[in-house]
Amino acid sequence: MKSIQAFSLCSFRVLERASDVFSNPVAASPRNSEPPRPMRQLSDFRFDLMGLRENAESIALYRGEPQERAQIYRRFEDGYSTTTSSSRSSAT
Question: In the chain, is it the N or the C terminus that has fewer CB atoms within a 10 Å radius of its CB?
């Protein structure tokens, strides 16, 4: 039970940090019905974290923490690299 609580707490803290990292606002063009890439990546990341939180007990029971952690880190890195590359290009 302690591992489930620790895993849930860790995922919540990751979500808080991700909100700070991905908070670079990008306005959608009125001609484009699809959200900008950073917003879509943030929503995918949040969706994964919510699924993680809802299924934490099953994940811990079947020892799926490494796979879930790898997926969450991959989503975070994708969004972070997009955000930092777009902020670098807008600064120049």
Answer: C
- CA nearest neighbour of 52 among 7, 2, 17, 16: 7
Look at residue 28 and tell me if it is in a domain. Answer: no
- Residue 75 identity: R
User: What is the length of the chain?
Assistant: 92
Distance CA 35, CA 30 (A): 10
pLDDT tens for residues 49-70? Answer: 899 999 999 999 999 999 999 9
The residue segments making up the domain with residue 9 are: 2-21+36-91
pTM tops 0.90, yes or no: no
CA distances from 58 to 41, 63, 67 (A): 25, 8, 13
